[in-house]
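Build the 3D complex.
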Amino acid sequence: MNVNVKKINSFLAENAIYVVLVLLVIGISLSNPDFLSLSTLTNILHQNSTKAIIALGAAFVLITGGVDLSAGRVVGLAAVISASMVQMSDYPQKFFPHLNELPVFVPILLAILAGLVVGLINGLVISKLHVPPFITTLGTMVIVLGVNSLYFDMPPNNSQPIGGLRSDFTKWGSGSFQIGSFSLPYLVLIAIAVAVICWVIFNKTRLGKNMYAIGGNVQAAHVSGINVSRNLLWIYGIAGALYGLAGMLEAAKSGGASSAYGNMYELDAIAACVVGGVSTTGGIGTVPGVMAGVLIFGVINYGLTFIGVGPYYQLIIKGLIIVAAVSIDIRKYLAKK
Amino acid sequence: MTEPQYLLEMDGVSKEFPGVKALNDVTLQVRTGTVHALMGENGAGKSTLMKCLFGIYAPDAGEIRMNGRKLHLPDSRSALNGGIAMIHQELHPVPRRSVMENIWLGRFPMRGPFVDHGRMFRDTEKLFEDLNMDLKPDTIIGNLSVSQIQMIEIAKAVSYNAKVIIMDEPTSSLTGNEVEHLFRIIGDLKKRGVAIIYISHKMEEILRISDDVTIMRDGRKIGTWPASELTTDLIISRMVGRDLTQRYPNRENVPGEVVLRVEGFTSPFPKSFKDVSFELRRGEILGVGGLVGAQRTELIEALFGLRSVASGSMLLNGMPVKIRRPVDAIRHKMALLTEERRVTGIIPVLSVLENTVIANQKSYARYGFLNEARRREDTERHVGRLSVKTPSMKTLIRYLSGGNQQKVLLARWLLTQPDILLLDEPTRGIDVGAKYEIYSIIADLAASGKSIIMISSEMPELLGMSDRIMVMCEGRLTGIVDGKTATEEQIMRLAAQHSA
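Done.
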């Protein structure tokens, strides 16, 4: 009896996030059995694909023991930059009225590049000037919003929402494979591909191992000959590039962009990571965990709306989930002390 | 039923953790006004026993009596109120607050709703006077030395009116003078009728200051003897449960040609090492002796590129080299086992495997991708060779004992195939059995032609392991002596050879 309780307890502690996810799905399904369907699943995945990419970027940084507050604003910057260059040629309110139709990969790459540049700046300031990540990225968060707003406000656009995006661009966000009656959004496939790449980086590369070592004990990593600055530079750079990719996909998904895009996404990303078992003190975190964290919030958003829970109650439930999930997750480290 | 000669009795105490019987029917009897040493290898159950006494663990069986009266100890607060205090090995003061606030934390004298600072100051002053401590109540604690903070912890214990004070490795970071000061205070406490339970790995200390010695092994009490009837060898053989004819392995290394020549190494900081010159030979173990503050750690960390150097040069195999960062040192086949295992050595949240391969990651990478099979093979081979006791390669390193953590760190550096190993207090905080194993590894390395610089604050270790011993005092090299003929007195004299 006692042993069984212990076994169950340790199973729950080890797999807390997955248990919470399953319980959520069961709870919502009991309330409305229609929730359990293939279309619900694809809807949830589609809605949360860009969030997953941002959360993965945030995970890189959190595992090194840092934090990146600039994520949301970089998403906004990338969305505006890419959208401003892929408007239909006959659209009346063009951002660049005289711009010829660019190949679609140009704005996509520029969006990712913009994110990469902001990330590298973060990495440089953190590793070379030794400004704490919280402060550095707080600064870039505000600066990026300023830069994006200036760009967005350029005549003739004057801060008008950017619309009329070309279909060869928007299809990345809203198109899907049709398999019989079932459709699988491209966006979901992109997010899965990014997750797989991140998993490989985390587990199979020097950069990934260095990232865990730096987060686990930066001094020991330094003594062991790891070039901490160079690794941090790349990690913040990769994170920025992922936010850039997510920003471009957000624009493609919604068919437009404004400088308000991405506001507060960094907090959603951090919440998903933390709920998914990423330690804010560094050194701990997995890709499947982060994905589960994103899905928990996805299921809450979609599922609670599905069964008619009001948005204000949803906020309260989300907050409770963050604290509850972490309090359960942290037990696996406390228990063995 | 109660024997009046015992102040504190722990009777038949047992404690079981999942899978481990940490304490098995342990009895401990402490007399009033004595120092009672508690000895045993790491994992013998000393700390668990003391945690039961201090209310941190609840024993599964047994009882604790003070003056014949049974104590119920659900937490540390009730232990303190019952007259039991503990000075931990690692001190945790609140650094930005004053001495007196640290002492009276949680029980400030009040006047109405306000803290009565005047009374707190006077009470603290009186306390220091009683204990012959030369400290001011309103100093900010962060500005004090480890030894002074320890004095404050002792004063705090006395302020709780403690009858039994547990001291866990109190001298591990004290200098010679500070140790003497501590021993004087312990003498005063004895006169006041306080009993001290003293945990230490340092035999000389134990034999010098304790009245009774209790030895534990594998969660059981082996016995209690008057200290006057014991010798170092007797204690060790009872601790490890076998006769230790030898505390240091036979060394077969033969020092060869000079591999490292250091000339005029001087730190940019005035209080650190200055004008240090020495040579290291192939297959040689060069011991580095000195007191705390001799700047030995600073010197070898500078050799490894962890600290900056203002002037001086380094020749490796006759070639001048510049080492600015650890990565340069590793490239030149050097390795550094740092003094602070927990701060700069282990990565607690990572596995034994990740901790082992971290300094050698480069050799497993191709286009940034790691060869997992070779990482595992190398780890298994070295972990096996150094007989690290770990459930698996995936176990987090923080669950291993200190000695096994140290062996993993040694494995980490052996993987980089260094020619020169810098070892900073390689056996600090490690139990006797594991110490011998580490000595054997060091001796084998030297015999295989590796050159070793070993800092040690334990005199017998220096004398037992080194071919030559260089001694430092206040950043200067005060002498190099032959390991075979040197005596403790000779080294102590050099270590205390102040320039002024």
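The domain at 6-240 of chain B is CATH 3.40.50.300 (Rossmann fold).
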